[in-house]
Amino acid sequence: MAEFFHSASNYVPSGIAGLDKILGGGFHAKSLSLFMLPTNRGKSAIKGAIGANMVMQGKNVLYITLEMSEEMIGHRIMSNIFDVQLDNLKTFHSTTLQKQFEKVANMCAGRFKIKEYPTGDMNSNKIRRLLKELENKQDWKPDILFVDYLGLMKTNSARKSSAKHEDLKTVSEELRDIGMEYDIPIVSSMQTNREGYDSADLDLADMSESFGVAMTADVTIAGIMNEELKLINQYIWRIIKNRFGQNQQEINVGMNFAKMKLEDLGDMP
To answer: Whole-structure pTM over 0.85, yes or no?
Structure first.
């Protein structure tokens, strides 16, 4: 138990000091963590930016995308790690990109792998097959798995008669099982319902389609960005469920959308 209490291998830091402090070090192995945001408020951007932070720490990151293409996610990750704006990155020739890669390669001991799947075609069994394939063919294991995002997955044994909320609860349980089996953190996201779209007081009841998903998750982080915060590219992250520390804690986080970078604002009001 003493080793468990003090072993950094039990969690992967997010690179956002305030969040890591609240979560007891970072995203914990054998757990499912969710970001809950309204549609078009940066669910993918947040997960990609945190994944980039982790690669810079030397962690291996596997990012499964069910909504955007591998190239679009890769574009964001490169912009973040290269510290180059998204639009400027598009103008780079292959030789310039190669130079940028060589410039940061020594700083990135970890590897970021992206795998794209069709929307509504992904389940936990397919993720297991992917993990086994990466291990057997490439001798590579992730330290953390991002799924973008849980609401687009289906169950391992889909039933035509089952309700959507029942399926999503099962999906969350099956996804969490992968974290338990492979001893890694799983990070995904869910959308808010209509009532939570522009709310400044998000809670678990604002999760879209399935309250059962909220019950399964170990950590749920509500990303609040109303029109006022949107103007200054800032979030309030409210921890509304936390099995590793206190609930209802808030931190301020900036988002540089031009470079897809998260900015730790510390105690800034």
So the answer is: yes
Q: Is 209 exposed, middle or buried (0-12, 13-18, 19+ CB in 10 A)?
A: middle
Buried b / exposed e over 12-49, threshold 16 CB at 10 Å, is bbbbbebbbebbebbbbbbbbbbbbbbeebbbbbbbbb
Which pLDDT tens digit goes with each residue over 102-137? Answer: 888 887 878 999 999 998 889 999 999 999 999 999
- The closest alpha carbon to 8, from 63, 54, 77, 49, belongs to 54
What confidence score (pLDDT) does residue 57 get? 92
To 5 degrees, how large is the angle CA 236–CA 259–CA 56?
A: 85
Q: Sign of the C-alpha dihedral, residues 36, 41, 44, 46?
A: negative
Please give the average per-residue pLDDT across 32-57, as a whole number.
94
- Copy the structure tokens of residue 137: 């063919």
Query: CA geometry: angle at 163 spanning 169 and 210, to 5°?
Result: 40
The residues near 192 (Cβ < 8 Å, ≥ 6 apart) are 36, 37, 38, 199, 202, 206, 207, 208, 222
Tokens 């510290």 appear where? 83
- Strands 234-242 and 249-256, by their bridges, are antiparallel
Q: What is the dihedral of CA 123, 124, 128, 130, to 10 degrees?
A: 30
Q: Which runs of E-coded beta strand occur in the chain?
A: 11-12, 27-28, 32-37, 61-65, 112-116, 144-148, 186-191, 219-224, 234-242, 249-256, 261-264
pLDDT confidence bin for 158, thresholds 50/70/90:
low
Closest by CA position to 119, among listed 153, 76, 85, 72: 153
Phi, psi of 41, rounded to the nearest 5 degrees: -120, 15
